[in-house]
Specification:
Elements lengths: L16 H17 L3 H7 L14 H17 L10 H15 L3
């Protein structure tokens, strides 16, 4: 199944694996937060929300966590969450420094 559905970012290109991924995320979320069944029925397969994300490694997971934390802090302040090209370049440079051995 994974070989047929490599792009899980867009539901349109991954009609089989994206719902499966959301199901697994819902199960893991339930193990930690133990919400009722109605919560998971309304949120698990929502196209506008996500209960979590799978990451390919520790660096990607840490940057994703920082990005989510940043958005949660800035959103109540009314600061735009759109990343500019310059911010993306800075993030790429930070990732290259963190990965590149000296």
């Amino acid at each position: 199944m994974i070989g047929l559905n490599q792009n899980t970012v867009k539901i349109e290109t991954s009609k089989a694996f994206t719902p499966l991924e959301r199901q697994v995320l819902g199960m893991l979320h339930n193990l930690i937060y133990q919400q009722d069944d109605a919560f998971y029925q309304s949120w698990m397969h929502s196209a506008n929300h996500s209960l979590g994300a799978f990451c390919s490694g520790g660096t990607v997971a840490n940057i994703t966590a920082l990005w989510v934390a940043r958005n949660n802090v800035l959103k109540p302040m009314g600061i735009s969450l759109a990343l500019t090209k310059r911010v993306c370049l800075v993030l790429c440079a930070i990732m290259a420094i963190a990965i590149w051995p000296f």
